[in-house]
Amino acid sequence: MPVFHAMFYGDLAEKAVVPIPDVEPEAFHILIKYLYCEESLGLTLENAMDTLYCAKKYAVRRLLKQCRHFLQENLTPEEAFTIHAKAVIWDEPKTAELAMCTLSSQTENFFSSPSFMELPEKLLKKFLDSDELSVSENEIYQAVRKWVVKHTENNPDYGNEFKRVFSRLIYGIRLPVMKPTEIANGPAEDGILTPAELIDLYTYKFAENKPAIPFPAEERTARPEPIYVSMDLIAHFGEESEELKGGTEFDEYIFGRIRLEVRCDVAPLASKCFIFLCTDDRKFTLRYGDVEFDRRGADDDPMPEDCPKTFPLENRLLANLPGMVSFVIREEDAAPRVCELQICHDDKTANKETYGMVFAKVVSGMETLKAVDSFRDPIWNRECGHPFTESMPAVFFYFGNVSVEAESEYEQEEEL
């Protein structure tokens, strides 16, 4: 480690105690354990960013990479804004953007979490500057009001302290976007605005000649919520048939069902392409390691000419970790134009290197995919692509019964 070498042996060597400034003790403890056993033991959402900073400071690149991957896999709306703020300070743009994507599409969950109520006022002001939140402006006002109540209710002069604190935050709320009744029952009733500000605000909403007001007037936009796609994985024994609609209990086996979380908030263009494939009954191939699943009963027509030859390469925020889903990049002249997707395998050598935009992940059914692997390996000759013995029937893999559901429908199903 070049930094440690300089501290202990180089020109910066200390004679007595070596100070470790601006590093959290827990994060430094994780770093030391990693240096000895190369395992990122003890990472949590609460300490992952501090550990990331520590790894970055001391140039431990592998631990830095593991921290980034841990945050991708475990990021929640409850911790998203705190992680975003630290990522901005410590120059981690992808982590910062990923945190804001999560926060934008799941703002309501953030508002209902204890971490929102514990935000420092400085971070709350920064949060109110965001243009992408998935709740109404009135919901933002009510959430900020609850925060102010919590932070002032124990003050002996509660009424005046409430107004003082809220008056420092009110100019980050986009009051012109709120309905007149919401303004009347909110800031007007709470006495946060002066009479002159209230008159200017109502004049701005209704008059042709609008006065200058100190409140942002642009509506916020929300990133789309994740969408969930489920499908059955099937093995068919015997001759392959384009007419195959379904087998019998003797010639096919259903391994189980997998569910993909499609990150429309992170990769909207790639997600849109994939949802189009699913809902329009288009034929595409799903690859996991050496196993390729064709879509059963799908339209064999090639992709429409107005679809891109290579699928969108947006700002790549998601790393290609095991269980992540990406488009496989084909050559420009590849024909017929059937899309190929890849689910990242634990064995990196089993993945195609030409993967494109990572846009989804398997949230349930990884054990089903691994069952396909364990079923296929003993009977399959990878070199020639068919069973080891002629007496064994050919095996073809399919997926079918594809369904698409919104996040709210997925949550209801999980509760059941």
Stretches with pLDDT under 50, minimum 5 residues: 242-250, 384-389
Tally of DSSP helical segments: 16
Give helix % range. 40-55%
Number of strands: 10
| Integer-rounded radius of gyration | 27 Å
Structural class by helix and strand composition:
alpha+beta
Report the average pLDDT across residues.
Answer: 83
Strand-residue fraction?
15-25%
Shape: flat
Strand adjacency order, main sheet:
1-2-7-5-6-3-4-10
Oligomer: single chain
- Distance between the amino and carboxyl termini: 52 Å
Largest sheet: 8 strands, mixed, barrel
Element-level helix/strand string = HHHHHHHHHHHHHEEHEEEEEHEEEH
Task: Give a verbal description of the structure.
The protein is of the alpha+beta class and 416 residues long. It is built from 16 helices and ten strands. The protein has helices at 2-8, 25-37, 48-57, 61-74, 77-89, 93-105, 107-111, 114-117, 121-128, 137-152, 158-169, 180-190, 195-206, 268-279, 366-376, 407-415, and strands at residues 227-237, 252-262, 284-288, 291-295, 324-328, 339-343, 355-364, 380-381, 386-387, 395-406. Strands 1-2-7-5-6-3-4-10 form an eight-stranded mixed β-barrel. Strands 8-9 form a two-stranded antiparallel ribbon. The two termini are 52 Å apart.
